[in-house]
From TrEMBL:
PANTHER family: F22D16.19 PROTEIN, T31J12.3 PROTEIN-RELATED. Coiled coil: none annotated. It comes from Rhamnella rubrinervis. InterPro entries: At5g01610-like, DUF538. It comes from the Eukaryota. Residues 1-19 form the signal peptide. Gene3D superfamilies: At5g01610-like. Keywords: Signal. This is Uncharacterized protein.
Amino acid sequence: MSLAVTRFVFLLLLPYVTSSTTNGVGDGDDTYSAYDLLQHFNFPMGLLPKGATGYELDSSTGQFRAFFNGPCSFSLEGSYQLKYKSTIGGQISNNKLTSLTGVSVKVLFLWLNIVEVTRSGDDLEFSVGIASASFPIENFYECPQCGCGLDCVNGPLRKLKINPSVSSI
């Protein structure tokens, strides 16, 4: 087979052998960030801490991964401690994050994985499998920062609003 024919066959098959993963909400446009991805699916960007370095999205399945330079942990209002691994993932669709991996919250003395986040109107419901808690979306307009959460300059501590609906299965 000549070199020209080999190149032609390669170029013809290239779309079928490349991954369906993209680094941008806009069909491979690298100007989009992991925060843009959240907003594209109707979530506030404050679900992720500052410092996301990129993401991958399989637009046919909704499978995604977001990347950080390393693990990240912080406290919110001194009562909720959160940990993010250097890579988190799951499945994203409009108003729903499922099969989450890499994000955990400390409840009493136990670290529990957050497995699902659902948006219902102006509330976000976080599920750890056996229980869930609902918070107003306004708590997530600002991205927390690794190490210090939302109180990074020792300014006035912003109270995390909690909805009274905490449920368990």
